[in-house]
């Protein structure tokens, strides 16, 4: 029995060495997605509610040109508010004209009353100037009383004219402020409605964003929350592969390291890639669990003149790493 145990020991050691060598020679495969260094990204805007619907999008993959409409968000509530604002503004402008005419009429009437009071005062002065010796005591005292009354009436007419002018100015100014307020609201709502229509500023293929919870592609008609990435138009230059490296494999990567890249669309045409950037702080990827991942950027030269588009996926092979 002892002999059998001793003879089995070299076989066990040999097997262990073989297994270690197999694991040591394994490669690390890192998958990623082609991205562009310069992209126009379309985000879901703020709305009156906490969600907003994507009403229409340019079909994915189509080439958008500067000025083309790319994404349109639902703006029915804003459009309804604009209609109400327009009606309110027209009503307020009509009311302003009415207040202006009313003020002019009141001022004209007050000016006429003041002119009449002036004439009555002048007449009263003439009557009161007649000497007492030429009139009876009753007539003389009556003329003096009429003069005092005419003076009082003139003061009242002047006060009424000032009041009519002030009232007209106040009413007109209040209405002008109301119109200015409605115009500001109308302008803001029109700008908000205009912002719901997003246009391209550069040329390139439109790519739909992914649902932040489920990872599925977004689509026309989807209901999104403000800040969600709905779509993007990447530039066709400065392409790179972005990958997220598990914390276990992070130690096997170094910047400027040269590796092999195979795009899923071109399996038979591998490319040479270089690790240009590797984050120093890991991040959690909620859709992948609680493990930590490092962001890695791989640059490549398309010497084969392949038609590489953002959104394509590929695989980087790290030679000789221990894939744990």
TrEMBL record:
InterPro entries: UPF0194_transport. This is Secretion protein HylD. The keyword Coiled coil applies. One of its GO terms (cellular component) is cell envelope. It comes from the Bacteria. Residues 1-24 form the signal peptide. Residues 82-109, 165-199 form a coiled coil. Gene3D superfamilies: 2.40.30.170. The lineage of its organism: Bacteria, Pseudomonadati, Pseudomonadota, Gammaproteobacteria, Alteromonadales. Keywords: Coiled coil, Signal. It is found in: Cell envelope.
């Amino acid at each position: 029995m002892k002999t059998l145990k001793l003879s089995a020991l070299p076989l066990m050691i040999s097997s262990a060495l073989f297994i270690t060598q197999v694991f040591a020679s394994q490669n690390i495969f890192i998958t990623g997605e082609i991205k562009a260094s310069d992209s126009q990204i379309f985000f879901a805007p703020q709305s009156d509610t906490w969600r907003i619907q994507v009403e229409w999008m340019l079909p994915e993959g189509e080439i958008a040109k500067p000025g083309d409409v790319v994404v349109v968000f639902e703006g029915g509530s804003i459009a309804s508010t604009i209609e109400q604002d327009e009606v309110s503004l027209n009503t307020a402008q009509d009311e302003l004209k009415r207040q202006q005419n009313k003020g002019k009429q009141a001022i004209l009437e007050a000016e006429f009353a003041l002119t009449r009071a002036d004439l009555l005062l002048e007449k009263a002065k003439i009557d009161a100037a007649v000497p007492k010796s030429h009139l009876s005591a009753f007539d003389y005292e009556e003329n003096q009383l009429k003069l005092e009354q005419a003076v009082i009436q003139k003061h009242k007419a002047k006060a009424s004219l000032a009041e009519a002018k002030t009232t007209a100015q106040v009413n007109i100014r209040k209405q002008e402020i109301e119109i200015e307020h409605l115009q500001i609201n109308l302008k803001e709502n029109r700008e908000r409605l205009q912002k719901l229509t997003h246009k391209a500023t550069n040329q390139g293929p439109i790519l739909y964003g992914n649902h932040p919870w489920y990872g599925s592609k977004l689509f026309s008609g989807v209901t999104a929350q403000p800040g969600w990435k709905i779509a993007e138009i990447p530039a066709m230059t400065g392409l790179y592969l972005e990958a997220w490296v598990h914390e276990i494999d992070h130690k096997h990567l170094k910047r400027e390291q040269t590796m092999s890249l195979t795009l899923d669309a071109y399996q038979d045409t591998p490319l040479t890639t270089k690790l240009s950037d590797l984050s120093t702080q890991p991040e959690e990827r909620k859709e992948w669990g609680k493990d930590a991942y490092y962001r890695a950027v791989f640059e490549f030269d398309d010497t084969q003149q392949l038609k590489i588009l953002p959104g394509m996926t590929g695989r980087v092979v790290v030679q000789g790493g221990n894939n744990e």
